[in-house]
TrEMBL record, chains A, B:
CDD domains: NUDIX_NadM_like. The lineage of its organism: Bacteria, Bacillati, Actinomycetota, Actinomycetes, Micrococcales. This is NUDIX hydrolase. PROSITE patterns: NUDIX. It comes from Arthrobacter pullicola. It comes from the Bacteria. The keyword Hydrolase applies. Residues 205-235 are annotated as: Disordered. It holds the Pfam family WHD_NrtR. The keyword Hydrolase applies. Keywords: Hydrolase. Residues 15-153 form the Nudix hydrolase domain. GO terms for molecular function: hydrolase activity.
Length: 235, 235
DNA sequence: CCAAAAGTGTTAAACTTACACCCATGA
DNA sequence: TCATGGGTGTAAGTTTAACACTTTTGG
């Protein structure tokens, strides 16, 4: 048993404060290659510490809102989007992750659909970056993003989160593109399509996506369990 | 956008306080059937709210310790054991999980080896319970335990955490017993043994476990990646 | 008609699963 | 020597993975 306070200076420290941050992922085509890739919004810090550096969107927890609600609000404020998927990532709280007053951050990660062009919400202090090229960020935020990426890829391996990136209907090739963008490797179209169809999570519609350069692919609809639903993990 | 404060009473609330709690799992033989089952220690609350009810061990975060360290200390204090495995579980922070002042709890889960008989550390206010029969606990602690169990079983499916329950050497049948106790179903000994041997995580020793009633089984040693290592997930 | 993506078929290899069987020991 | 858990063998069923092949559209 250690004594209640190791020394006087500790006794006089304030209790650590709490903040909520969010890693928001969206897929958008790379302006150069045209292939889908992962992007996320960052905000520029306007005060010390780390003033002028980019950081994850975040803020304090309000008295009456749940952790999840705080994260969702966060996301709404910085992107204007509603999350299709929102889940707690991790609580970061090392005594040295922030200079001076200690901050414990509970971090959420979210997936949003980009097509709503709301990606356009950029200004001097909010911008989107490729997930694999964010530069040096404030605090331990690079580490946080790495972890979020790891978790995203993990979930992808055996999950239905892919649909959180897509609209109400989609082609099987689009689902494959999502997987390829997130996992960073190519997948066999033939086998992939069969694996998808083997899960009961999607259902074919009678529509086809017109306007492509070749044979129009059939559209499908997600019918599996509620994505993200709410508050709690058992995903 | 919601207004900054919904009403005056909210403005006057204190910021939520932070606590660390720990779900500590150990395997011990059931006093009746003799088969291994999951147990965890709980502490009796000595103050309101929920006075006299059993609850997860926990306490405040000290100024200079990391979240992980706080959880480890917690565990040391209540069981006298060091965790072989300790990982963050989830942060619980609904505005209504505790009457009156709001508390955000960052919960860890741990696996310990029971053989050190330190299970004996029981007194009026600390006792061990079967994980599937804890009764009604304080706060949302039943829910937390359910989630910890879910996560444990999940990790078990494709992981090497099983070894965290065992000593330096063990028989393959012991590993199987761990799996059976946690997953709650029987496994084919023949196939299970082969699957274990197929992973590179264990290595055979030249010793055999003597004293059984039948043919002495060979002892093995874990040689895979550090269990639990520290601070961070990428398990 | 041609290029290219959509979509189907086929087969070898890998991995599960179930269960028969032999082995070695304490009693 | 027998009962029992330790340990090996094996064959059917299922899943994965690679890739050839047919279909349908826009140009």
């Amino acid at each position: 048993m250690t004594p209640k306070y190791a020394n006087v200076s500790e006794r006089e420290q304030e209790p650590p404060s709490l903040a909520i941050s969010t890693v928001i992922f969206a897929l958008r085509p790379d302006p150069e290659t045209g292939r889908l890739s992962l992007w996320l919004p960052l905000v520029r810090r306007i005060r010390q510490p780390y003033r002028e550096l980019w950081a994850l969107p975040g803020g304090p927890l309000r008295p009456s809102e749940s952790l999840q609600d705080a994260a969702a609000r966060n996301l709404q404020d910085t992107t204007g989007l509603s999350p299709r998927y929102l889940e707690q990532l991790y609580a970061f709280g090392g005594p040295d992750r922030s200079p001076t007053p200690r901050v414990v951050s509970i971090v959420y990660w979210a997936l949003v659909q980009p097509d709503e062009a709301a990606l356009a919400r950029q200004d001097e202090n909010v911008d989107w970056f490729r997930a694999d090229a964010v530069g040096t960020l404030a605090f331990d935020h690079n580490r946080i993003i790495d972890y979020a990426l790891w978790r995203l890829r993990n979930k992808m391996e055996y999950g239905s989160i892919a649909y959180a990136f897509l609209g109400a209907t989609f082609t099987l090739a689009q689902v494959r593109e999502v997987y390829e963008a997130v996992l960073g490797r190519e997948l066999d179209p033939a086998n992939f399509r069969r694996q998808l169809q083997a899960t009961q999570d999607i259902e074919r519609t009678d529509s086809f996506l017109q306007g492509g350069r070749h044979r129009p692919p059939r559209l499908y609809r997600y019918t599996g369990p509620e994505l993200q639903s709410d508050a709690f993990p058992p995903a």
